[in-house]
Amino acid sequence: MSRTPASALASASQSFPAFDATNCCRDRYDLLDALANQGFHGWGIELGVASGNYSLEMLRRTGLTKVISVDMWANDRGHDDAQRNGARAMLQPFGSRSCTLWGKFEDILPAFGDNLFDLVYVDGYAHTGEAGGGTIVDWWPKVRPGGVFGGHDYSTEWPKVQAAVDGFTATKGLLVHTIGPASKETEPAAENDCCASWFVVKPLK
Known about the structure:
- The chain is of the alpha/beta class.
- The chain has a single domain (about 25-200), classed as Vaccinia Virus protein VP39 (Rossmann fold, 3-Layer(aba) Sandwich).
- The chain has helices at about 5-10, 30-35, 55-60, 80-90, 105-110, 130, 135-140, 160-170; strands spanning about 45, 65-70, 100, 115-120, 145-150, 175-180, 195-200.
- It has a 7-stranded mixed beta sheet with strand order 3-2-1-4-5-7-6.
- Helix 2 (about 30-35) packs parallel to helix 3 (about 55-60).
- The protein is globular, with a radius of gyration of 16 Å.
- The model is unreliable at about 1-15 (pLDDT under 50).
- This is Class I SAM-dependent methyltransferase.
C-alpha cells in the first residue's frame, strides 16, 4: 500500500481548534455528533470494524471527508469473510468517503502520515488490551493536534484495556474522558454496546 499523498495530508489536517470536550458526551454516538457540530471534516479511522456499524455511523453523522475502516476479519469469533463482505457492502453507498482495509493494524500503519486524523477510534482485541497497549502507542502520532483519540471497551470487564489506556495517558499527561455505554432506548443505532468508551484530545502543542 502506498503512503498517503502529501496533498491529501495537507487537506485532511487543516488547522482547526482543538475538540471541545466540555459537556461531551453521553456515549460514543454523541461523540460523532459533537465532531460534526464542531465542524471537524478531515479524516477518521476505525481500527476494529467487525460488522461495520460504527464506521457506518461515522459516515452518517459526521462531515469527515474520508473514513477508513480497518479489520483483520481473521475468521475468529464470527469475524469472517461473510462479515467482511457485509461491512463492505453496507459502507459502499458512501463512495469515495469510505475506504475498507483488510489487514493488521500494524501493517496498515505505515500507509498514513503523522498528524493526519481528526478521529482515531480503537475497537480491536480487548482481551489483549489492544495488543498490550501497542495499538494505542502506535496510532497516537497519527492523530492531528486538536483531534480525538479514543476507543471502546473501557470497562472492568476488559481490565487490560483500562490498564493500557490509563498507562499511556498518564505518561502523556492527558485527561481521559469516559462515556457510555450507549443504550438502545436513547440511541437506536447502538449495537450490543456493552461497555464504555474512552477518549482524549491531542494537545495543540
